[in-house]
Amino acid sequence: MVRSEPRDWLFAPVLRHGIASPMTTSRRTLSLLLGPALTLATGCARTQQRMETATDPVAVRLAGGHDARVARDLARVRAATAAFQNFDSAVAAGYPRDVPQCFAHGEQGAMGFHHVKRAVVDSLVDLDQPEILLYERTSDGRYNLTGVEYIVPLHRWTRSEPPTVFGQAMKREEQLQIWYLHVWAWKENPAGLFADWNPAVACPA
What we know:
Elements: E1 2-3, H1 24-53, H2 57-62, H3 68-81, H4 87-92, E2 102-105, E3 109-116, E4 132-137, E5 143-153, E6 164-165, E7 168-169, E8 171-173, E9 178-183
Parallel strand pairs: 1-2
Antiparallel strand pairs: 2-3, 3-4, 4-5, 5-9, 6-7, 8-9
């Protein structure tokens, strides 16, 4: 069903609970012993990923009109979310399978289905961990990944200036009480890489 009403249901409060573990001391000891090695390994992996994504020609094309930093960040996001082109992989990573609404605009296209990973909705913006995956559902029930959306709840952001991602100031949405930014990393948007609506995306009839 095509919807164009507010997206309030997407952003219900996330409750978090800290649970003490009897293994805390041993884990801390192991962390002290292995920390430097793990840090080095992580750094090497990230360096390799950046080398591989720096030459992503699709990212360069999608980022047309923006500077090299945007193309680099877009390549990084595409690398981080490539596995989620398989919808089951996204579900396994914590994004919900069932989303009730597809959001469309009569004149400007659609946003599609928003799959919100509530566990990462906080005050941080992590390029490699988008809070929302955007999908378009085809007539035969398949899901096609079209983009991502980054969000930060207004009450979690205490600075006077807006949070940024891709070098862009995130947009303020009063009704949903969030900062947000769409990034059409997997389906070209004629309206622009960071536009809210994508004329090339449609909701099921």
